[in-house]
Design brief:
About 60% of the residues lie in helices and about 0% in strands. It has 25 helices and four strands. The chain has a two-stranded antiparallel ribbon with strand order 1-2. Strands 3-4 form a two-stranded antiparallel ribbon. Strand 3 and strand 4 form a beta hairpin.
Length: about 575
């Protein structure tokens, strides 16, 4: 028994070295090298197929489980890792014979591991966990299986038509890997490491678009399924080729040898249901909490790590996209999976406890997702509001105009607004104005209470809070009409001059007098024109090009208007 597994392991090492040699740029594999590699793959596959048939017999399987070297010391785990790490070199990617043979090798070694793990007499994983070296090998093997699944179920990877050609059966790699992950996740020796390492693979499955997920995981009509096969091995023909190779008499014609095979694939319905049940059981195994076995800190540990992973993978939300599309899709797909899983109970593929654990996990994740959406949306709104207030403070904060400013009359200029309006809106002139640059323009103070003023003491600054943009930031669902009403209210108050009854120019609320409409920098025709334009283009103030174009257009209908004046308006 030891010799059989050791000799197979040595053959696998030779095959691995050959494939790695072909993978170097310095080596160019021709047809003869490809045929010889395929022949070696078939010999390894035939040997592994024979051992798998033996492992399916209870007597032989129990003898293996009692073998210290193969189980406790990690002999089978080491062989499994060598096979799972086999890869098709770039120069042989076009050879479907080699690709399918290597894939079937992986499927068969996974089946052997499943036979050992599912044995009832002796716990194979308990034997592995007795030694630290074997335990490390087991954890490495588990990661290799998960990487295999992540590659296979990657959302960006589309299965090639040739990879599922019935002429080149690839073996039941995925279904065997899923079943093995189910076993590992249910074992107390490996469950803690699986809680973290299984999440990326599960997220790849659950984050697929909803329609694709339902057709792949909640249906028996799969677009693609795996085909498995066994070789009809001819030992005499293989021996003839081996002797020819040993005597350096192997020609390209003789090397073109291929064993026939016969299909052993699962029925399509059984395959689809088994695949889905494995995903359900993996989630249930990781989410379950057994008080007498699990520690208290393990309660909802898988759920918390799953939530943390979704947050780390999610892009930072905005007001237009407040929630992570991935988290929302995962929750929706889990709901569909929970509903479909109930139909698998009568077939004994799942039990009621598995479905209940899945439903509980889906429900808790959905509650968290809803609360997280609200928190992150509110946080985004606060951040947007805070940054806008700081910007408005920098742009608008200016000393309050005094009576001396109001009564002083500057030199007449046809481009300047009327003197009183100019002194209310432009408190102190900047040394040099640059048209089109809002940060070089003199900010304007607004003395209107309806415009949102923060009133300090006499002589301090008035800070405009940006009512219109803050409102739209905090309530992304507000309609354009609402935004327009706020904008028009602000624009109307912007050019009105308050009655000043005190030396400071401020008024108490109880002493406010009715406002009198003052002249503005635009006539009625210009105001009507720009207000109509704002209905179709409410974000005009953010576009310098649009502001410049409308400033030139409005200047032809009355007094000259600069783009900066139009933006402040």
């Amino acid at each position: 028994m030891d010799v059989a597994f050791d000799s197979l392991h040595e053959d696998m090492r030779i095959l691995s070295v050959r494939l790695l040699t072909y993978d170097t740029k310095a080596f160019s594999a021709g047809p003869f090298h490809s045929q010889l590699t395929h022949f070696i793959c078939q010999q390894c596959e035939a040997s592994l197929q024979f051992l798998l048939l033996l492992c399916q017999q209870k007597l032989f399987r129990d003898r293996i489980l009692k073998n210290k070297e193969l189980c406790r010391n990690g002999g089978i785990l080491s062989l499994s890792l060598t096979i799972l790490k086999l890869g098709v070199p770039e120069c042989l990617k076009g050879s479907m014979d080699i690709a399918s043979s290597i894939s079937r090798l992986k499927a068969k070694i996974l089946s052997i591991l499943l036979q050992l793990c599912e044995a009832e007499s002796i716990s194979y994983l308990d034997e592995v966990a007795t030694l630290e070296k074997s335990m490390e090998l087991g954890q490495t093997l588990a990661l290799e299986v998960l990487d295999l699944l992540k590659t296979a179920f990657g959302r960006k990877q589309k299965p090639a038509a040739s990879s599922h050609d019935k002429n080149y059966p690839m073996g039941s790699v995925l279904i065997s890997a899923l079943r093995l992950v189910d076993v590992f996740s249910d074992d107390s020796n490996f469950r803690s490491s699986f809680i973290t390492n299984t999440i990326p693979f599960l997220t790849q499955i659950l984050a697929t678009p909803h329609d694709d997920f339902v057709s792949s995981w909640c249906s028996v009509n799969l677009p693609v399924m795996e085909d498995d096969a066994n070789l009809d091995y001819d030992p005499f023909g293989a021996a003839e080729l081996a002797l020819a190779a040993a005597s350096n008499m192997l020609t390209e014609a003789k090397a073109n040898y291929s064993c026939p095979f016969r299909s052993i694939s699962m029925p399509s319905i059984a395959y689809a249901q088994t695949r889905t049940s494995c995903v359900v059981k993996i989630i249930a195994n990781l989410h379950v909490f057994v008080p007498n076995i699990c520690e208290e800190q393990e309660r909802d540990l898988f759920l918390q790590k799953f939530q943390k992973y979704l947050l780390s993978e999610s892009p930072w939300p905005s007001l237009d996209h407040p929630a992570s599309n991935e988290a929302t899709t995962v929750c929706r797909n889990l709901g569909s999976l929970s509903h479909y899983a109930k139909s698998l109970i009568p077939n004994n593929l799942l039990n009621e406890e598995d479905v209940q654990l899945l439903s509980e996990f889906a429900y808790k994740l959905q509650l968290w997702c809803k609360s997280q959406v609200g928190q992150r949306t509110l946080q985004v709104a606060k951040c947007d509001t805070s940054s806008q207030m700081k910007e408005d403070q920098q742009l608008v904060q200016q000393p309050l105009p005094t009576r001396a400013n109001i009564t002083s009359v500057p030199d007449s200029n046809i481009d300047n607004p009327p003197q009183v309006v100019q002194n209310i809106e432009e408190s102190t002139a900047t040394p040099s104005k640059q048209e089109g640059n809002a940060r070089d323009e003199t900010p304007r103070n607004r003395a209107s209470v309806n415009g949102g003023l923060l009133q300090n003491s006499v002589g301090q600054n008035l800070i405009h809070l940006g009512v219109a943009r803050t409102t739209s930031a905090c309530y992304p669902g507000a309609s354009a009409a609402t935004s327009m009403e706020v904008t028009r209210c602000k624009s109307a108050d912007h050019f009105r001059t308050p009655e000043t009854t005190k030396e400071s120019g401020l008024r108490d609320d109880d002493e406010r007098q009715p406002k009198r409409k003052k002249r503005t920098i635009m006539n009625d025709e210009q105001v009507n024109e720009i207000e109509n334009a704002l209905v179709d283009e409410p974000e005009m103030h953010k576009s310098a090009t649009s502001l410049q174009a409308w400033a030139e257009k409005l200047s032809g209908q009355g007094s000259e208007i600069t783009s900066s004046q139009l933006k402040n308006w």
